[in-house]
Design brief:
- The complex is a heterodimer.
- Chain A is mostly helical.
- In chain A, 43% of the residues lie in helices and 3% in strands.
- The longest helix of chain A has 26 residues.
- By secondary structure, chain B is mainly beta.
- In chain B, the strands form 14 sheets. Chain B has a 22-stranded antiparallel beta barrel. In chain B, strands 10-15-16-13-14 form a five-stranded mixed beta sheet.
- In chain B, helix 7 runs antiparallel to helix 8.
- In chain B, strand 35 and strand 36 form a beta hairpin.
- Classes of the chains: A mainly alpha, B mainly beta.
- At the A-B interface, helix 1, helix 2, helix 3, helix 4 and helix 16 of A face strand 18, strand 30, strand 34, strand 36 and strand 37 of B.
Chain lengths: 533, 1061
């Protein structure tokens, strides 16, 4: 009997073992279920360019860089400013992208060999969260990106997020320094599709991002954020970005492989026209055509037919939808090239440049203008010399960016043209000629206005952020015309004298999936981002 | 079946009387088709003297010399008593008795057969007559409205609509809720249903609850539809031929405003504020129609200008074609006492209401049986069904385009587009933003090819009396190939740059997708039957192995170089591509025991354990039992048995538990099934970043992105516990038949892939949470008020009450989004019925009136989404009538559904374009928002608003096209109630005609006319579309939403000729 039960037991064990093998077929043959951080990084950085393209589009339409073109309808709340939770969604693309950086951080924390990956992902995490705060103010930050352990993440106040981000940058920079001192570590080389493993440049980017946090947090109108540490890493004497940080995994004219801004606004890889529903505003053109400032060189570098745009296409004002509203040429107004054949167009100056152009992560111009503002407002920064130099460097860097072709060669003489712009063409106009400013307010106005121009259709959202923070470039409140303000002609906004909205609403998904924490009473006209005026 | 009975009856071949009596012979036939009936019981009344008919239906019996009466009885037929008199030959035609038929042919799990009386749970049998009256191509359509508790929705339109089959409401929040389809004892994927030749079907048995189906394993927690196909009959050789022609025509078109055409205030306004006309605008916010002749579109390059009257033209509904279905059927059946054979073929061609849409389907079937020895029998059944679609890939876009097109556009004159001079040519087409719908239909094509092969082989071995061993192997395979392509169109420079033109060149592209799936099911089971005194014991033990495999490939390329050549090798640039493989296995071991007492009381218990490869090892085994009982009071209690009023009375009840692994259902390609494989771990994607194609790999640089889905560590099966009690009562010799069932189910451990806040870093989490429950009532009643030789009238119907709700989900997740259309979602929400429609509403006062601004008169959208209605019909009624008079037979079926809401996705789109009926109700003038109030300065009191009007009731940026109207989902939520005339048919039986003509070759036939879905009556507020449609498709639980992907609902009408040789 005993023997029998042993036999039965053995047989049962055998059957169970065979069974387990028979059922052990649930290994995914289609997708990996675990990958190393070095495979995530190139994708995450490239996806950041998609995220930024979304922000530029949003910023250009709220911030006056682009208006609805004639021949298209259905703009509705985009021109009336009656925003709903469905208008604009910066939220999910940004958080989705952040999750990939978070994955790298989680996988590499405590892993000395991958210290660079950890540092780079942290810097990019800060970059993404700042975009979110600047669009939404309060956001899930300390409780965000925690997956299943925090399914309903509470929101953090905007200033608290800013303070936390600065601390994260400090630790990222410390890790780069630690990595530099280590004998063996995994180099990030070409996994890094921004700086190709140049960690000194990542240090510059980190410092510059921190400078942006501090400039906005220690606003000229008062301290809004309490930072734990406002110092910067000297980074061997070159603390801030001096060249443009570009994302480029190898963009090319191929399916899904084009520079995303080019793909959107110029031509798709097959040569069909991109989005023609938007054109430059008359307002933004006024900063080039002599109405507000005279800047034919950058105007020509950016806009198709600048100076000779047919009068029925010269630019529009947001909300003007009458039958004679200017239309968009095939390939868009932002591609200045005369080769308008979709399958060969490209290789141009300006903001779109071509299907193979790198996508700017942060421009040198923005770095210089942030430094200039720091000098004016008394924020102590290393390197550099004074606000005048930084201002002039900023304008020059803008010319250099715009004159640069997709292969990074420079067409023309940006430095000379920049000098002409500041010293000759607009002499006496303090917005371009910094030697004629008087007082800090004019200095700030000049710096911010030039930043707005330098980021036009590159990072329009940053121009829009700075406008909301400083009120520059100055817009008219009464007697609004197409060149003295970018407020929509059909603005429903009556609370603010400038007729402009101040923010977008949280997306519908937060109302649906995180309703308990969603801040209530958010109004697009009255609820300000914490740093805003 | 009849042959099997013959075998059984031969055992009972007993008593015969002798001697002094005389002999009567005769032949028994089916009155219905004249076929011989073997195995009929023939008894001399009042004696135990009896016999059965032979294979040719003939009998021979001794009867007393005088006063003899013969009683003929046969299961499934009405018993007949015939006074012999002086005759020596008594031929009798027997009439089918549906009630009695129920009594025997119930096929349950594993192909086990049970008598109706043994079953403790509700089931409904549909015979071939029930099914084929309306001549639907799809058997799902043929079942609509006929079965209590069975909700069948045509969720889409087109040449081969999809159907969603739900028994007793939805249980699983995100998993499969569709009834299991069992074809000839083998479970098959539900797609097989739409490719089944309905004329091959002998009967369909619907097991409403999970109890009766528990032995099918976890697949059956949603109830089961058991389809039995025809077999050849012993001694009868028939050839059947039929041809059916059906027209399909748009039955309902959304109600639109008919007063205003193209234009808008954006083009300027007259002094009276009325907006200007514009010749290329597609928003209908122009001036009121005045009938004047106006230009349409800009002048062409060669200087021509199209002019039309500015008036309402009804071109929207004239755009749709009248489609036609042709169905030809041929079948052959034969049999002898050793084997039987049934062979059939079918060919169906369909043209759709969307211009150019075509569909063809063929079907071949061979069913056979063979008695190898007295102890071994074999059966086989094989079907091959290829089909082909040739349709446009832009149905939704075309419909949207048609809905948005101003009513002054005579679109039907633009059918010709290839001629460079035609007004329909894309260069000349009036509208720069939308393409000519005829051009879209022609230029964007999709060709789909499906090959279904299903079959099974079965061996039954009876080593000793009472013991039967069965081995069965079934397969269901599908090969799917799709080619979608579009041609190029290069616009002239003139067209690209005229007026506001946004015309841009169209690049040719082609994409290929293919998929192969195969399901293999192996069954071994043993059945033992033994009677001891008054008790009968039936014990079954079995095992089942199911394996599913699928392979998908997809590749696409653009920039085709040589015009008209749609081949992957003709492209430029890099192709996009993908592949996926899936494999799952399941093992079930089960047992069943039934104890019968005196053949009127029965108790059955079952148990089954499943092992499933889709769950983690260690948690992949689960067990579930069931118990059911039935008592046939009309047999057990003599007082009932003997009275003339009650002819059948049964009470029954069951309690069951079933487990179901509910993981995934659609794959990345084509929305085809992934069988729920590989869901236990999160994945990484190489070619897209969170849904956006990212171009990776770039040369040697690879990139991966973490997917947005999270998975909980220990996924378990969903468990459904159900109970039901019911009563079946027939009165007055079955002139009245009725059945009532109350049921309750509770499903917990819901496997839910729920959307979560993006700030978690993810967008969804797959885990076991929540519980749903449903309860309801199913009732059927039929009665025959008239039954004479010439006339029979049967009236009746079925009623279903369903109340299902979500008990809870989890603390973190009060609701789950199942589907989305526009700003509305279909949601499983804790404490609410399942599912509910949620979306944005206006800010309202406590009385529900809309609060508007005291100055602008404008309402405000609520910032939070709210519940806007229950999406599942609470009440469903099917009523049918059948009248026969001599050789005529007339049937009619209506279906009503009520007590639910539907969100109409086309609402926002047509409001935007200004064609919607709503946009015209105030004649585009300023208006006071109806039933609105204004909040007083005290912040508490609301006073009705009678005077503060919304100033801009018109125009491109006015109220109707603005987000404050379009984004408010509640504006497009209407009642879903409807009544449909599902089926109506009139048949003339030609059998008598041919026999009186003395035709030997033609044995019988019929001609008939029939219609389906001829009329649709909907609730007054629903002027949009058929509430059966669902954005979520046939497989999605997120019902209650529709969109513009479904073309207008269609009615079918046609005629059939059927001949029998």
């Amino acid at each position: 009997m005993k023997r029998l039960s042993i036999l039965i037991f053995l047989a049962a064990a055998l059957v169970m073992a065979a069974c387990n093998k028979y059922f052990d077929i649930n290994t995914n043959p289609n997708q990996p279920t675990s990958v190393t951080p070095n495979l995530i990084l190139p994708q995450a950085l490239t996806a950041t360019s998609f995220v930024l393209n979304g922000y530029n589009t949003y910023g250009s339409q709220l911030g006056g860089n682009a208006a609805n073109a004639g021949g298209y309808g259905g703009f509705n709340e985009y021109v009336t400013y009656s925003y709903t939770s469905g208008s604009w969604n910066m939220w999910s693309p940004t958080y989705d992208n952040l999750e990939d950086y978070q994955y790298i951080i989680d996988k590499t924390t405590g892993d000395a060999a991958n210290i660079y990956f950890n540092a780079v992902a942290t810097i990019m995490r800060v970059h993404g969260f700042q975009l979110l705060v600047d669009a939404y103010n309060d956001i899930p930050y300390t409780h965000g990106l925690k997956g299943a352990s925090e399914l309903n993440p509470p929101y953090d106040k905007g200033p608290d997020v800013y303070a936390g981000l600065a601390v994260e940058l400090d630790s990222a920079m410390a890790r780069i320094n630690r990595g530099n001192a280590m004998a063996t570590k995994n180099p990030i080389d070409n996994y890094d599709v921004v700086f190709h493993g140049n960690m000194s440049k990542w240090m510059q980017l980190a410092n510059t991002l921190k400078l942006k946090l501090i400039v906005r947090g220690l606003n000229n109108s008062g301290t809004k954020v309490t930072f734990a540490n406002t110092s910067f890493d000297p980074n061997g004497g070159a603390p801030f970005l001096t060249t443009d940080a570009l994302i480029n995994p190898g963009f090319t004219r191929d399916i899904n492989r084009q520079n995303t801004a080019w793909n959107n606004w110029a031509y798709t890889y097959t040569g069909t026209a991109g989005n023609k529903a938007w054109v430059p505003t008359l307002w933004i053109l006024s900063w080039y055509d002599g109405t507000n400032l005279n800047d034919p060189d950058r105007g020509k570098a950016i806009y198709f037919e600048f100076g000779s745009i047919p009068s029925d296409q010269i630019g529009n004002r947001l909300g003007r939808e009458t039958v004679d509203a200017p239309k968009c040429p095939t390939g868009g107004r932002w591609y200045p090239g005369t080769d308008r054949t979709g399958t060969s167009a490209g290789n141009s100056t300006g903001v779109l440049k071509g299907p193979n152009a790198g996508y700017p992560l942060m421009t040198a111009a923005e770095s210089y203008f942030l430094q200039a503002e720091a000098y004016v407002t008394g924020i102590v920064i290393p390197g550099g010399s004074d606000d005048v130099t930084s201002f002039r460097n900023g304008v020059t860097a803008s010319f250099i960016f715009l004159y640069t072709l997709p292969d990074l060669s420079v067409s023309g003489s940006p430095a000379a043209d920049a000098a002409t712009y500041m010293d000759v063409t607009n002499t006496g106009n303090y917005l371009a000629d910094y030697s004629s400013v008087s007082g800090n307010l004019q200095k700030l106005e000049a710096i911010t206005t030039q930043k707005y121009i330098a980021l036009n259709y590159i990072h329009s959202h940053e121009g829009w952020n700075e406008f909301r923070r400083t009120g520059y470039p100055r817009v008219a409140e009464s007697g609004r015309t197409a060149t003295n303000t970018f407020a929509s002609t059909v603005s429903n906004q009556t609370f603010r004298p400038d007729g402009l909205p101040t923010r977008i609403l949280y997306p519908t998904s937060e109302a649906q999936y995180n309703p308990a924490n969603l801040p209530s009473g958010i109004d697009p006209f009255t609820k300000l981002i914490f740093w805003a005026k | 079946m009849k042959k099997f009975l013959l075998v059984c009856f031969s055992f009972v071949f007993v008593l015969s009387a002798w001697a002094q009596e005389r002999v009567v012979t005769g032949k028994l036939t089916s009155k219905e088709d004249g076929s011989a009936l073997p195995g009929v019981n023939v008894i001399v009344k009042g004696t135990t003297n009896g016999t059965v008919t032979d294979a040719d239906g003939k009998y021979r019996i001794s009867v007393p010399t005088s006063g003899a009466t013969l009683v003929f009885s046969f299961i499934g037929m009405e018993s007949q008593e015939v006074v012999v008199g002086e005759r020596s030959v008594v031929d009798v035609p027997l009439v089918t008795n549906l009630t009695q038929l129920n009594e025997v042919i119930v096929t349950t799990a594993g192909g086990l057969q049970a008598r109706e009386r043994e079953l403790g749970s509700a089931n409904t049998i549909l015979t071939k007559e029930n099914l084929t009256a309306g001549k639907a191509v799809n058997i799902a359509a043929a079942m609509q409205g006929k079965v209590a508790g069975f909700q069948i929705n045509a969720t889409s339109s087109g040449v081969n609509p999809e159907f969603r089959l739900i028994l007793r409401g939805q249980r699983s929040m995100t998993g499969d809720n569709q009834a299991l389809i069992v074809l000839d004892n083998v479970p098959v994927p539900s797609a097989v249903l739409s490719n089944l030749n309905m004329n091959d079907v002998e009967s369909v048995n619907i097991l409403n609850g999970s109890g009766a189906a528990a032995l099918y394993g976890s697949l059956a927690s949603n109830g089961a539809v058991i389809i039995t196909t025809k077999k050849g009959k012993s001694g009868v050789t028939d050839i059947n031929f039929s041809h059916n022609v059906t027209m399909n025509q748009v039955a309902f078109y959304p109600k639109m405003q008919t007063k205003f055409g193209a234009g808008g205030s954006a083009y300027g306004t007259n002094l009276d504020g009325s907006p200007f006309f514009n010749y290329l605008e597609n928003q209908s916010y122009g001036p009121a129609f005045d009938g004047k002749i106006r230009p349409l579109g800009p002048p062409t390059e060669d200087g021509r200008q199209l002019y039309t009257t500015y008036d309402y033209k009804d071109a929207h509904s004239k755009f749709w074609d009248i489609g036609q279905t042709n169905q030809t059927d041929l079948s052959f059946s034969t049999g002898d006492d050793k084997s039987s054979l049934y062979v059939s073929g079918q060919y169906v061609t369909v043209t759709g209401t969307t211009p150019g849409d075509k569909f063809t389907r063929a079907n071949l079937r061979i069913n056979g049986t063979r008695k190898i020895t007295d102890k071994v029998r074999a059966a086989y059944s094989v079907s091959y069904a290829p089909n082909n679609y040739d349709i446009t890939s832009q149905t939704g876009a075309i419909y949207d385009n048609m809905l948005n097109m101003p009513q002054n556009v005579p679109i039907t004159m633009m059918k010709e587009w290839r001629d460079p001079k035609a007004w329909g040519n894309p260069n000349n087409f009036y509208n720069p933003w939308y393409q000519n719908p005829y051009f879209m239909a022609d230029n964007y094509r999709e060709k789909d090819k499906n090959n279904y092969l299903t079959g099974n082989i079965e061996l039954r071995f009876t080593p000793v009396k009472g013991l039967e061993l069965t081995a069965r192997q079934g397969i269901a395979s599908r090969g799917y190939f799709q080619k979608s392509y579009n041609g190029a169109f290069t616009y002239s420079d003139y067209a690209k740059n005229t007026d506001q033109s946004s015309k841009t060149d169209i690049i040719a592209s082609v994409a290929e997708q293919s998929n192969y799936t195969i399901q293999s099911i192996t069954d071994f089971l043993a059945q033992y039957n033994k009677s001891i005194t008054d008790f009968n014991f039936n014990v079954v033990a079995g095992t089942q192995i199911i394996e599913n495999q699928a392979k998908y490939m997809g590749i696409g390329i653009g920039g085709l170089v040589v015009g008209g050549l749609y081949n992957l090798s003709n492209g430029t640039g890099n192709p996009s591509y993908g592949e996926a493989d899936f494999k799952t296995r399941k093992l079930g071991v089960y047992g069943k025991a039934t104890i019968g007492y005196k053949d009127f009381a029965f108790l059955t218990g079952t148990g089954r354990n499943d092992w499933d490869s889709r769950l983690n090892l260690g948690s992949n085994s689960f067990f579930y039992p069931s118990v059911e009982a039935s008592v046939l009071l009309s047999e057990g209690i003599s007082a009932i048995k003997d009275n003339n009023l009650i002819s059948y009375l049964k009470i029954r009840g069951s309690i069951a538990k079933t487990g179901l692994v509910n993981l995934g259902s659609t794959s990345p390609i084509s929305g085809l099934s992934d069988y729920g494989a590989y869901y236990t771990k999160p994945t990484f994607s190489s070619s897209n970043s969170n849904g956006v194609s990212n171009g990776f790999p770039y040369g040697s640089i690879a990139g991966y992105s973490l997917s947005n889905g999270m998975v909980s560590n220990n996924l378990k099966p969903e468990i459904t516990k159900s109970m039901e009690v019911g009563i079946d009562l027939n009165l007055l010799h079955d002139r009245i038949t009725s059945s009532v069932t109350y049921f309750q189910t509770k499903t917990s451990n819901q496997t839910v892939n729920t959307a979560v806040s993006n700030s978690t870093g993810f967008s969804a989490l797959l885990s076991n949470v929540g519980q749903t429950q449903s309860q309801g009532l199913e009732a059927t009643l039929h009665f025959q008020p008239i039954k004479t030789d010439d006339w029979t009238v049967t009236l009746g119907g079925n009623y279903t009450y369903l109340n299902n709700k979500v008990n809870f989900i989890s603390d973190n997740l009060p609701r789950i989004t199942l589907a989305t259309s526009g700003s509305a979602t279909s949601v499983a929400a804790a404490g609410q019925s399942f599912p509910v429609i949620m979306g944005f509403d206006y800010v309202r006062d406590p009385q529900g009136r809309v609060v508007v601004d005291g100055v602008t008169g404008l309402p405000t959208q609520n910032s939070a989404v709210t519940i806007l209605g229950n999406a599942t019909p609470k009440h469903r009624i099917g009523t049918d009538a059948q009248v026969t008079w001599k050789n005529f037979r007339f049937t009619v079926l209506f279906e009503y559904r009520g007590g639910y809401k539907v969100f109409n996705g086309m609402g926002g789109s047509t409001d935007w374009s200004g064609t919607a009926y709503r946009t015209g109700v105030y004649d585009r003038k300023a208006f006071v928002f109806p039933n609105s109030v204004i909040l007083g300065s005290d912040g508490v009191t609301y006073t009705p608003n009678t005077s503060v009007a919304i100033a801009n009731g018109n125009g491109n940026n006015g109220f109707w096209s603005d987000g404050i109207n379009r984004n408010v989902s509640s504006n497009y939520v209407t009642s879903g109630d409807f009544v449909k005339l599902r089926e109506i048919s009139l048949t003339y039986d030609l059998t008598k005609f041919f026999s009186t003509m003395g035709h030997k070759f033609i044995k019988g036939g019929s001609i008939s006319a029939q219609g389906r879905n001829l009329f649709l009556w909907m609730a007054k507020d629903n002027y949009y579309t058929d509430p059966e449609y669902s954005t979520a498709g046939a497989n999605g639980n997120g019902t209650g939403l529709n969109d513009i992907g479904q073309t207008p609902p269609v009615r079918y009408y046609g005629g059939t000729l059927q001949l029998k040789f």
